[in-house]
């Protein structure tokens, strides 16, 4: 099992000052730039600590959001390529359909791989629906653009015998010939996110790593679809390292301290709700069938944030789940190292296993000291024991 | 206000044109009138159609990407749709066509007219879109993409036409609604509801044209329909009281009456 520290690098101290939504339309007058700079440096320090403690690191990218201040995952991970020593650097990822220039994505990734000595893990993601309001790229045919951009990036990474041209449906180039090229051959490992069986199948066909974020127990279906499609296409079981899951973690040797941190980290879940309805699923971003189902169902065409609530016994948790329920749902593992390990083990078993755990040691309004404790205690007391979970998976 | 303005029910006739499956409705008798539906798709059950078919042979197709009409993969703009209609009018042997479009359909009518097809004799542009009139730091239209999908309805209609409930919506109809919204997004997302090439192409347009504006329009940020009429040679403007943007749905009698009065005028020599 590999573990990855992750934070969305938010501007959480201003959340309470912002009325309403935290994304897309909140004026940036609420952003205090000196504070933002201080926070971005704090997050970089936390990543460096994770590196020192033997964890790998993962970063993401969002736009027009007080909940994630990283408008380019390559920029921030480029800094860490230089500042960290051992950690694998997972960018999950570049929203390649929002970038008008996928060749540049390939160039930037290759540069990071070169600076880091071949430590890059290269994520390509569809991006959230609300990102399209920042990039202005059309939500319709987004996955067609996604796969063409993907093909182009892989070809740019793997072509070593001079320039090639590309005259595709969405992208045209007369001279692609990236310098530097990546150290890792044929290219850095590719990751993609999946939050439904359908999207997992597409990733399985390519054999890439897929990761699901805070999807809860329904991730079992996403992983099952991945495994089934992987077997069909590749003729053997996928290794555990093809699957990843991301959740928050609040861990401390002092139980009351962990409980206090878990309480603070719930602010992350609350922040997810603060996206206005029009920006969640613009037409074309989701499938026609999903839209039609929603229109015919009790929601009557309305779209709201659906934080996972399913408990292991099939019941749905109430509005304010207990810490135990949050752990069972798979959103926030909290408690002493033993408790956290057992929670992860139980969740891992229920969803059929995975080989990467992306731990959000910082989320919501969790302050620096608490985050650093999370990173240290997780790295020292929990991470070393996670290896046995992989054995469980291999046995299954 | 009901959640739907009308149900985009299937059209009874089918044909194949350049390899595309096309659904359409042909009804009534009289001069040829090609009705270009707005972004919510064709409404074959509307009162406006009952009134128009008394005086015209009305052809109401679903545009490529709307209803059940196929969308070629290469199509992504209203300009693309206009080439489809040049072929459509020829294949239906239409003559002296009165081209009537509402909103997205009126934008399409302008795109067709900009290719100067011999078949078209008059234009009726009801609540048109398609031409950028404001400067680059303003938009002529409220951005419906920044409204929840179910909140688009009051932008299009003031509810005077009655509307429809979602109860009893079949899967087929729900999928048609989804598809109509998706194709509208494909063609209207950016540039937002205009084609920057259109004004130059329309410079030599000289067709009798009626531009209709809705007195209670909620899409326009200013008197857009009137201003657009002023850019077109030979265009007259009329405002329909008591109507929202989809004036054919909100005030079908006044809409049909305006079309009839305009189309009943003698052709200019």
Key structural traits:
heterodimer; A: 396 residues; alpha/beta; TIM Barrel; eight-stranded parallel beta barrel; two-stranded antiparallel sheet; 15% strand; B: 269 residues; Rossmann fold; eight-stranded mixed beta sheet; 9 helices; 8 strands; 30% helix; globular
Mean pLDDT figure of chain B: 96
Low-confidence stretches of chain B: none
Q: SSE order of chain B in H/E notation?
A: EEEHEHEHEHHHEHEHH
CATH top-level class of chain A: Alpha Beta
Outline of chain B: globular
Taking Cα atoms only, what radius of gyration of chain B do you get, to the nearest Å?
A: 17 Å
- At CATH level 2, the architecture of chain A is Alpha-Beta Barrel
| CATH homology group of chain B | Alpha/Beta hydrolase fold, catalytic domain
What is the averaged pLDDT score of chain A? Answer: 96
Q: Count up the domains of chain B.
A: 1
The SSE string of chain A, one letter per element, is: EHEHEHEHHEEEHEHEHHHEHEHH
Question: Which structural class is indicated by helix and strand composition of chain A?
Answer: alpha/beta
Strand content of chain A: 5-15%
Strand order of the largest sheet of chain A: 1-2-3-4-7-8-9-11
- What is the CATH topology assignment of chain A? TIM Barrel
Q: Regions of chain A with pLDDT < 50 over 5+ consecutive residues?
A: none
The number of helical elements of chain A comes to: 13
CATH architecture of chain B: 3-Layer(aba) Sandwich
Which chains share the greatest interface? A-B, 26 and 26 residues
